Amino acid sequence: MARIFHDEDAPADALAGKTIAVIGYGNQGRSWALNLRDSGLDVRVGTVADTSRAQAAADVFPAHEIADAVTDADVVCLLIPDEVMGDAVASSVAQSLKPGAAVVFASGYAVAFDEVKLPDTNDVVMVAPRMIGVGVRDSYVDGSGFIAFVGVDRDASGNAWPVALGVARALGALHRGSVEMTFKQEALIDLFVEQAIAPGLRKLWSDAAMVLLEAGIPLEAVLAEFYLSGEIERTYRAMREIGPTKQWKLHSQTSQYGTMSRAKRYADADLVTQMRAAVDDINSGAFAREWAGVRADGYKKMKELYEAEGRDALMDFEDEVRQKFEPSS
Ligand code: NDP
User: pTM above 0.85?
Assistant: First the structure.
């Protein structure tokens, strides 16, 4: 069983007297900075000089160049996109880090796939929210908290775990519970959802739409049923709140019987082979190498993919149908 940490597992004084640098002020950065400050910590922000910096200053944070924010900080939270992490760390972070400072990542990717090089004298820890940035802030403010994956890749100071848990607690990530994971495990599960589950769902919904349209169901009804109504979203919420099977009770007996009696309809479809291939592709570093190559090539393949995959037949009608379901004023 994995270790799950709660508020009481973080030593109360883990971050006492420490200065926290939040690098990047985007989706996660802004929420982290606000939560950490509201938890009583001394927070400064480091960004390149632009709208992010202006936003941090408007939120009344000391806002600096990245290297200046890192200098003398005890804890450095790197909240910039994973794809720029290697270059940003090499150019503005690594040489400014004070020995013994802890570097905190919100994702395992850059460390798991060797895209960053940090001095041996620094702790390397992870607090990876299972939550979008705005949710990190909202769930702190309303007190509900969020789940995260936490881990330590390098404990140079001997104090890396208390610091990791101190940051997680101050963020609101230990209120519900955070699961111990390695950076590699976090990267795997994150990428697996994106690369093995999302394409499967896309295929499922796209095939289902085609079959329903063939069966004479109007497109408006298909889109309403699949997502515009929000019914499936509510079902997912119920799965979270009471469990995937217990939520069956919220549906009619006809629905329950239909789902249970036809539960094995796709039992023969071989998803496992493809999913294992996805795990190998990620764990071997093949995906990370490919993605690094795409970036180095000026995102050419990314643009081609937007052209090829970014639209499907349904999307051509989607905006029009969506407007038809706007509430009348
Ligand atoms: P964002 O894209 O929101 O980060 C934006 C910030 O990074 C801005 O301050 C931006 O500055 C700065 N930035 C962009 N490029 C560079 C660069 N080359 N050098 C320096 N600063 C740069 O990132 P997220 O908040 O989405 O992600 C941050 C981390 O959090 C990642 O590790 C991600 O995997 C992780 N994470 C994200 C989640 C999410 O829901 N978004 C969920 C869980 C984890 P500027 O304004 O100048 O562009």
Answer: yes
